[in-house]
Design a protein that fits this description.
The structure is a single chain. The chain is of the alpha/beta class. The protein has a single domain, classed as Rossmann fold (3-Layer(aba) Sandwich). It is built from ten helices and eleven strands. A seven-stranded parallel beta sheet has the order 3-2-1-4-5-6-10, sandwiched between helices. It has a two-stranded parallel ribbon with strand order 7-9. Strand 5, helix 4 and strand 6 form a beta-alpha-beta unit. The termini are far apart. 43% of the residues are buried.
Length: 315
């Protein structure tokens, strides 16, 4: 019987994961490690902060935890880079060290397709064999790359700690609203000239399902997590019944540079690659090797998002 602790267990993704784990027949105990109390009655809440280096190992030992699912992260990056680094990078280092100290058997980590980076020479479909080149100018992407480099070193230094790393595409869910979904709220969708900027979407229940499989079985390894297929900006605009505002990359960079100087926007020209060269995740290894197929495709996840967010689409 598995005894699992989920960091960030009271958060958006964490609450889905802990609820599924609590109902799983092979799970004896689920502990939510979060500053907030879990809303799932069957889950034990342990308040702690991943940036506190000494707080986790005693909790792991107290509950005889054998599996840790590490989800604690900044939900909407881009506001406080120093805090994001402490939570995402230092916090992951603290979790990793605590797992080694407490003799945890398996560590499951939510990474991101952003670890591959936003580059003009990205392949049309990115597999797990592609190098991690997270952009230094985009802190979230850089932090995910740094965490994965840390985890790779740990696989050599501590082979007794199994790792399952999920590089996740854009997560959609009934309560999701972030810098990506905000792109769909206006009258027109922004498009960079010469780029269709494809998205891969995955519904939150599918991400949680993959996490639960990793916590209760399934092979160790690194896997992209995304629904089948992709949707380009023109396809998104057509489905939403909205037009597009097409801007050359150089013009958008200049406009963002001026806008930030005038304090009209917090975004700068470093955001242009994020909009222009999105990593498109191939999920073949997830389905073939890990044995998990998301229930919803990219298109179906987007349809479910529209169903749960009435008013976003015009038709």
């Amino acid at each position: 019987m598995t005894r699992v602790l989920v960091t960030g267990g009271a958060g958006f993704l964490g609450s889905h994961v802990t609820r599924l784990l609590a109902a799983h027949p092979d799970v004896e105990l689920v502990v939510s490690g979060d500053l907030r109390a879990s809303a799932v009655p069957e889950v034990v809440s342990e308040p702690f902060d991943v940036t506190d280096a000494g707080s986790l190992a005693p909790v792991l030992q107290k509950h005889r935890i054998d599996t840790v699912v590490h989800l604690a992260a900044i939900v909407n990056p881009g506001r406080d880079v120093a805090l994001e680094y402490r939570v995402d990078v230092d916090g992951s280092a603290n979790v990793l060290a605590a797992c080694v100290e407490a003799g945890v058997r398996r560590l499951v980590v939510s990474s991101s397709g952003a670890a591959y980076g936003y580059h003009g020479d990205n392949p049309e479909w990115i597999t797990e064999d592609e190098p991690l080149r997270g952009n230094d100018a985009f802190p979230y992407s850089r932090h995910k790359r740094l965490v994965e480099e840390m985890l790779a070193d740990a696989r050599t230094a501590h082979p007794e700690l199994e790792q399952v790393i999920f590089r996740i595409g854009t997560i959609l869910g009934p309560t999701v609203h972030n810098q990506i979904t905000a792109l769909w709220d206006g009258d027109r969708l922004l498009r960079i000239a010469g780029s269709d900027s494809p998205f891969v979407f995955v519904w939150v229940d599918d991400v949680a399902g993959a996490m639960v499989r990793a916590a209760t079985g399934g092979p160790a390894g690194v896997y992209n997590v995304a629904g089948d297929g992709r949707m380009t900006v023109p396809e998104l605009a057509a489905r939403l019944g909205k037009g597009m505002l097409t801007i050359p990359a150089w013009a958008l960079s200049a406009g963002l540079r001026v806008g930030r100087l005038l304090h009209l926007t917090e975004h700068g020209p470093e955001k242009v690659p994020f909009l222009r060269w999105r990593p498109v995740l191939a999920n073949d290894r997830l389905k073939r090797d890990f044995g998990y197929t998301p229930a919803l495709s990219t298109y179906e996840a987007f349809e479910e998002y529209l169903r749960t967010h009435p008013g976003v689409a015009r038709r």
